[in-house]
Design goal:
This protein is α/β, with parallel strands linked by helices. 33% of the residues lie in helices and 26% in strands. The chain has 3 domains: 199 residues, FAD/NAD(P)-binding domain, CATH 3.50.50.60; 115 residues, 3-Layer(bba) Sandwich (FAD/NAD(P)-binding domain); 101 residues, FAD/NAD-linked reductase, C-terminal dimerisation domain (Enolase-like, domain 1).
C-alpha cells in the first residue's frame, strides 16, 4: 500500500493504548505501520496506572480481605504478607499484557522502532539519526505528571504511579498528595498491604470530580481501613534525611508536620506536547494538549492525535481507547466517525466508582434544571445485596425538559463490569427490561431509581 514517496502508510508515535489501537486497527486493514516508542513498550496503560496498578490493587484487596476477615470466618490475626511474592504475581499480568501486544504487532507486521520521535514536517519524523516518512501520522504520546510547587520536593524525591508500581519493598508509612481517582486507588492499595497511609487534598472531599455522595462513602470506607484522610489540606514543603521524609502541611490554618518513608504525588497529569516538533509541522496545540476535531484529526489533515496528549477530557484508558478507535477509522476513510460525547470515569477502589455523563456539580455550573434519583444499595427494595456489598449507591440525573438520562453515578461492587451497559442505556434512552435483568443487582437498583 506504501507508495514510493513514503516509508510507511502510517507512523504512530507512542505505544500506549491509544497508539496500539490505531496501529493494530490500521495494520489489520492492510496499511504498513510503524510505531515509535522512547520508553517502555505499552505506555502507562500496561506498565503503570492501568494493568500495573490495577494488578497490585487486586492483590492488595485479596490480602486485606483475608487479613481482616475474622468477621467472615476467614484468615485473621497473624496472616503474614509476602510482599515480594505479591508484587511478582501482580507483575505477571504486566508481562503477559506486554507479550500479547508484541505478538499482535509481529503478526500484523507492525514495525516497532525504539527512539524519540520529533516531527520534521507534515510527513517526516526524525528518530535518532534517521528520518522516516508516512502518509499519515498519529500522535499518542500520553501525559506526564503536572509540575508541583511543593518546596523541597525535587530534592527530597517522590513517587508517581510508575514509582509505586516499581517498589520492591513496601514503605511503613506513606503520604499521598492528591485525592482524585489515582490518589485514592494508591492510598487504598498501600492500606490494604498494611502500610500507614495519609491522604491529603486541597479540596473539601475525596474524589472532588465526582458527586458529593461518592466522597462521603469513600471517606467512611478509607477511615475504616485506617487511612488518615486530610481534606482541605495544602502540602507546603518536604525535607529528606537519611531515613525518612518530613512533610509539612497546613490544615484549617494550622501547620503540621509528619515523618513518612515515602511521598506519592497524584495531583494530576498534563499533556505531553513539548519537544515533539509540533511547530515544525504546523500542528495546533496549547498547554492543555493537541487540538483536534471530532474525528481526532488535527488542523493538519494527515496528522491525528489520541489519548492523554489531546485537548479535552481526562487522561483515562477509556478515553484513550475511544479516541484511538475513532482516529483509526478516520485514517481508514470513515467520514462519519466521531468521538463519543459521553465521558466515562472509573475509580477502582473498593467500592468502585463509575461516572457516566454529567454529575450534579456539572449541572449546577451550567445552571441546568434537572431532577435526580438516588438509591442506596443498603436500602434497595427489590434486591438487597449481602452486607459486605451494601456500601454504595446508584444516582441518576434527568434533564428537566426532555426527561432523558444525562448523568449516572454508580458506586459499589461490580460497577466496572456494568459501565458499558449503562452507557448504552443512556445513549439510546430506551430502557430494555431484559438488559436490566442481565445486570442483576445493579439492574434492580437502576430500575428503582427510574421509578422515582
Amino acid at each position: 500500500m506504501v507508495g514510493k514517496k513514503y516509508n510507511f502508510d502510517l507512523i504512530v508515535v507512542g505505544s500506549g493504548l491509544a497508539g496500539r489501537t490505531i496501529a493494530t486497527t490500521c495494520a489489520g486493514e492492510g496499511m504498513r505501520v510503524a510505531v515509535v516508542e522512547d520508553g517502555e513498550f505499552g505506555g502507562d496503560e500496561i506498565n503503570r496506572g492501568g494493568i500495573g496498578l490495577g494488578s497490585l490493587l487486586e492483590m492488595s484487596q485479596a490480602y486485606h480481605t483475608v487479613a481482616d476477615g475474622t468477621a467472615w470466618g476467614v484468615g485473621g490475626e497473624g496472616t503474614r504478607l509476602n510482599y515480594a511474592m505479591l508484587h511478582d504475581h501482580a507483575m505477571l499480568a504486566v508481562d503477559d499484557a506486554r507479550e500479547k501486544a508484541l505478538k499482535e504487532f509481529d503478526e500484523l507486521g507492525i514495525e516497532l522502532i525504539a527512539g524519540t520521535a520529533k516531527l520534521v514536517n507534515e510527513h517526516d519524523v526524525n528518530v535518532g539519526e534517521e528520518i522516516i516518512s508516512a502518509k499519515y501520522i498519529a500522535l499518542c504520546t500520553g501525559a506526564v505528571l503536572k509540575e508541583n510547587k511543593i518546596e523541597g520536593l525535587a530534592d527530597a524525591g517522590c513517587l508517581d504511579v510508575g514509582g509505586v508500581v516499581s517498589l520492591r519493598k513496601p514503605p511503613r508509612t506513606v503520604f499521598v498528595v492528591g485525592a482524585g481517582s489515582t490518589g485514592c486507588e494508591i492510598a487504598q492499595y498501600f492500606a490494604g498491604i498494611g502500610c500507614r497511609v495519609l491522604l491529603a487534598d486541597i479540596s473539601g472531599r475525596l474524589l472532588p470530580r465526582e458527586d458529593e455522595e461518592v466522597g462521603q462513602v469513600l471517606d467512611k470506607v478509607l477511615n475504616d481501613e485506617k487511612v488518615a484522610v486530610l481534606t482541605q489540606t495544602r502540602v507546603t514543603a518536604v525535607e529528606r534525611d537519611t531515613a525518612s521524609r518530613r512533610v509539612t502541611f497546613v490544615r484549617a490554618g494550622v501547620e503540621h508536620a509528619v515523618r513518612v518513608d515515602e511521598i506519592v504525588i497524584a495531583t494530576g497529569e498534563t499533556a505531553m506536547v513539548y519537544e515533539l516538533g509540533l511547530d515544525n509541522a504546523g500542528v495546533s496545540y496549547d498547554k492543555d494538549g493537541i487540538k483536534h476535531d471530532t474525528s481526532m484529526r488535527t488542523n493538519r489533515r494527515n496528522i491525528y492525535a489520541a489519548g492523554g496528549c489531546t485537548k479535552g477530557g481526562d487522561n483515562t484508558s477509556i478515553k484513550a481507547l475511544n479516541e484511538g478507535r475513532v482516529a483509526a477509522r478516520a485514517i481508514l476513510g470513515d467520514k462519519k466517525v466521531a468521538v463519543d460525547n459521553l465521558d466515562i470515569r472509573m475509580t477502582r477502589t473498593v467500592p468502585a466508582v463509575v461516572q457516566i455523563g454529567m454529575n450534579e456539580d456539572d449541572c449546577m455550573k451550567e445552571d441546568m434544571h434537572v431532577r435526580k434519583a438516588v438509591v442506596a444499595l443498603a436500602n434497595a427494595k427489590t434486591f438487597r445485596p449481602p452486607i459486605y456489598m451494601q456500601e454504595g449507591f446508584a444516582k441518576m440525573i434527568f434533564s428537566g425538559k426532555q426527561n432523558t438520562i444525562i448523568g449516572t453515578t454508580l458506586m459499589g461492587d461490580g460497577v466496572l463490569e456494568g459501565a458499558n451497559t449503562v452507557l448504552g442505556l443512556m445513549k439510546s434512552n430506551v430502557i430494555d427490561p431484559m438488559t436490566l435483568v442481565q445486570m442483576g443487582m445493579w439492574g434492580d437498583v437502576i430500575r428503582e431509581a427510574l421509578k422515582k
